[in-house]
Write a structure and sequence with these properties.
five-stranded mixed beta barrel, 6 helices, Rossmann fold, 10 strands, 27% strand
Amino acid sequence: MAQGFSQHHIKARDEDIARYCFIPGSHTRGRKMAEKLDRMRLVADARGYYVYTGTYKGIPMTVCSTGMGGPQAAIAIEELANMGADTFIRIGSAGGVAEHTGVGDIVIGTAAYRGGGTADEYLPKPFPAVADFWVTQALVDAAHECGIDALVGPVATVDAFYAPDDKVKRLVMRKGGILCVEMEADTQFILGLYRRLRCGAAFVLDNGPRTDRLYAEGELPIADHGKDRLFIESENRLIDMGFEALYKIAVSDLEEK
């Protein structure tokens, strides 16, 4: 007899969730990632979460697209962890902050500026939102093997996508070495510390200060995720990099047994 649902939001069964998980925000990106899995199946579709499980090079993996923001990401991580997951890689998009960043750049986040509110419910601001070292190392190694010249460093998390532009704040971020801005990493990293989970994140940039990277479509100063060739090509490379990184982690775990 099949096990019943054990979580309030993600209506999946424990046996359908892998130890190794991707948590992209975009549902479109989540589906694209899921299509790389062998024997892929949709195991949950509820409350804005689309969850797929299959195997990559024989390793069971789960892809759960969370939607945008810390609250959604936190629920996904908590409930997936309750079902047996302990390793999470966010494959996301972000906007470039550092002056040398532009559309199509790939960033591996080492830590996150805590501009979101969800993580504050777990640990106060003095606690740093840092990625797991070994997950980050796997992402860096996978980037090298995939021929990706990834940028590696801190990112910034914010809650308000359409907040008024604060030039002073952006300048301070640049002085602090922030590479890009997004909406979930500080929650993910703090939950990793609080729940003893392994968490890492990597991003493809859809805008940035560099003027040699122009936008293919539309009037907004941001790449169209469905039409901009440079963004799409980089997103595909980021996805390949992410799968290789998670595979490396799984193989390392097996070797340590």
